[in-house]
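Tokens for chain A. Residues wanted.
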């Protein structure tokens, strides 16, 4: 959409974030038209349907499983920010 070089296409040397979604879930049935798919995206999905996520060519979720290194980094960052916020409350 932005027409920036290296963004917005699936080809070598382009940045790509890709999410695959498992539509074979009871709450996403039926998915027989583009209208029903859009409705499912807007009203029925909650994140448990995300099967794979690729960010800048690196797989961060594969078959519903997070890369454990990423989880550790996220948890560490959340803890640091929480402690910083709690410290501000004490001031």
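Reply:
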């Amino acid at each position: 959409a932005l027409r920036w070089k290296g963004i917005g296409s699936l080809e070598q040397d382009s940045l790509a974030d890709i999410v695959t979604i498992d539509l074979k879930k009871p709450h996403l049935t039926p998915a027989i038209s583009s209208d029903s798919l859009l409705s499912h995206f807007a009203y029925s999905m909650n994140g448990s349907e995300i099967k794979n996520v690729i960010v800048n060519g690196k797989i961060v979720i594969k078959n519903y499983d997070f890369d454990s290194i990423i989880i550790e980094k996220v948890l560490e960052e959340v803890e640091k920010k929480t402690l910083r916020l709690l410290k501000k409350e004490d001031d």
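The radius of gyration is 18 Å. The chain is about 35% helix and 20% strand.
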